[in-house]
User: Fold this.
Amino acid sequence: MKKLLIFFIMILTTTQVSASIKIKIIENLKSIKNINFKKVKKFYNVFIFCIVFFFVGVIFKNIYRISSDFNQSISPMIYNNFNINTSNKVFNTDNEFTHYQQANNISCGFSISPCTHFKINVKKKYFLGYLVYIKF
Assistant:
C-alpha cells in the first residue's frame, strides 16, 4: 500500500496540478489505509449475488419479450402475394391524378410508383423541369 501511495505522490509531483488539488488527492489516498478489507470481504458474496441476479433478470426479461412477440414479423410487409397490384389511383381536388395508394394500408414496396400508404392531398407542379409534389 505504501508503494502505491509513493507512486501516486511521484506522479503528482511531476505533473502540473495545483497545490490544493494535490493536497486533496494525497489526503484521499491516505484515507485508503483506514479501510478494513476483512469487513469488505464479508459483503463480497452479497455483491456477487446482486450482480448475477441483475444480469439473470435482464436476460429473462429479454427472452420473455422475444418469445411473446414470436408470431409477429420482424420486418414490414413489403411484398404480399395476396394483394399484388391492388393499388388505387388518387386524384386531388383539381381532379388531377397525383399518386397511387395501396389497399389495406400496406407498404408500397414493389408496387407502381408514385405510391404512398398515407392519406394525403397533394398538387403536382413542374419546377426547373422536375416534377414536384406539394402538400396542401
Notes: The chain has a mean pLDDT of 76.
